[in-house]
Amino acid sequence: MTKTTLKPSSLGPARAALKKANLAYTQAYPGESSRRQPVHTVYGGAQIFKSDTARKMGQTALATLQDSAPDAKTFAECLGFPKTGGFGKRVYERVVAKLEREPVEDFRIDFEDGYGHRPDAEEDGHAVSAAEETAKGLKEGTLPPFIGIRIKSLSEELFDRSLRTLDLFVSTLLERSGGKLPPNFVITLPKITVVEQVTALVRLLEALEKAKKLRTGSIPIELMVETPQSLFDADGRLALTDLVAAAEGRCVGAHLGVYDFTASLNITAAYQSMAHPACDVARHLMQLALAGTGVALSDGATNVMPVGPHKKDAKKALTPAQKKENREVVHRAWRLAYDHTRHSLERAIYQGWDLHPAQLPVRYAAVYAFFLEGLDPASRRLKSFIDKAAQATLLGDVFDDAATGQGLLNYFLRGISCGAITEEEALATGLTLEELRSRSFLKILNGRRQASAR
């Protein structure tokens, strides 16, 4: 029998150093989060936000759908869905149901680009009124599942204004709500140029939480990538990981701001687009920097609105020619938004921005088509993967591909949470509803192992 040469005593220092590094890696890269990620964020100016804004946006979206695609056939022809097998009908019916049930998944009350620069007294008033409407929506159950505010940047020129708006909004909200924050409430920080801006926001939130007797870390943040300095620092190093680290565990998302980003690269307005190659560079860098960290990625918005040139008038009905022109304009904008959304989804960026209620039908149509197209192969793959993983676990073998398993599971969790896939359709994977709702691949494996041991 051959004897080993290395002694445990000689391995001690190397093993201790490796263990420390492995644990640090696990902490920095916990893997893809199993928490729900909204498929979009709708941005709207703080000056017009009301507690029932999400519901009204759904009504407007349904009206646009009825005017521009009153049936599944028209919608499918506009977006290029398959003409056979009832695919277009299935997508259309689920889009309608979504707009009736939950038209907005995430809403950002905007004090930045969607709001503009206003006199201090006016912004003070809107910070208070928007907070009061948020508290009212929280009480009445009319808020979307995710909500937050986008403050102005923390540049030297705007720091004081941004801080005051943040303080007024959060303080008023907590006062009106009895000290409660809405579920999934977040602060979005735009136009980041130095890591100290993120650090400053963290310190400000800590002070607010302490003063308001909230648990430290109660208010998460999102980082906007819309300057080159958000991606690379002055020394040419990738900056995004440092920005996330500076958030000290608060960062839950990174959003690409397409139009500010392209403008910062001196790309003229005519060519600033979701499809510009510079945006793909930014997307890929964001993915490379944040893969495995649990920070969710979001793409930007299509800035061509699906709004026809002719407005309805109670005194005079639109002519057939005007209705036709309106529909053609909406369809062109929908096709563009559909292509942009598919571009993001195919690159594994599952969230984007919407700026107008009429964009909601095409947002959900693109997302639903994407998930439904891949449903059957994904079901077979996850079923096979779980069977093999469970078998390895039962036999005492090491199964170290849990991240892939969680990624496959997350496909179904994303599809179910947004309404693209029903729970019944997901059962084709061989999972139970209880297993699906656990949202954890490891919990599923552990549960099956314990059940087999009994």
Write up this protein.
The protein has 454 residues and is of the alpha/beta class. It has 2 domains: 331 residues, TIM Barrel (Alpha-Beta Barrel), CATH 3.20.20.360; 80 residues, no CATH class. 54% of the residues lie in helices and 8% in strands. An 8-stranded parallel beta sheet has the order 7-6-5-4-3-2-1-8, covered by helices on one side. Helix 6 links the parallel strand 3 and strand 4. Helix 11 crosses helix 12 and helix 13 packs antiparallel against helix 14. The longest helix is centred in the last third of the chain and has 27 residues. The protein is globular, with a radius of gyration of 24 Å. About 2% of the residues have low confidence.
Determine Rg (CA atoms, Å): 24 Å
Unreliable spans: 393-400
The helix fraction, in percent, is 40-55%
CATH fold assignment of the largest domain: TIM Barrel
- Biggest beta sheet attributes: 8 strands, parallel
Number of domains: 2
- Shape designation: globular
CATH architecture of the largest domain: Alpha-Beta Barrel
Count of runs of 4 or more consecutive helical residues: 17
Can you give the mean pLDDT?
Answer: 92
Strand content: 5-15%
Physical arrangement of strands within the biggest beta sheet: 7-6-5-4-3-2-1-8
Category by helix and strand content: alpha/beta
| Terminal Cα span | 39 Å
CATH class value of the largest domain:
Alpha Beta
CATH superfamily of the largest domain: Malate synthase, domain 3
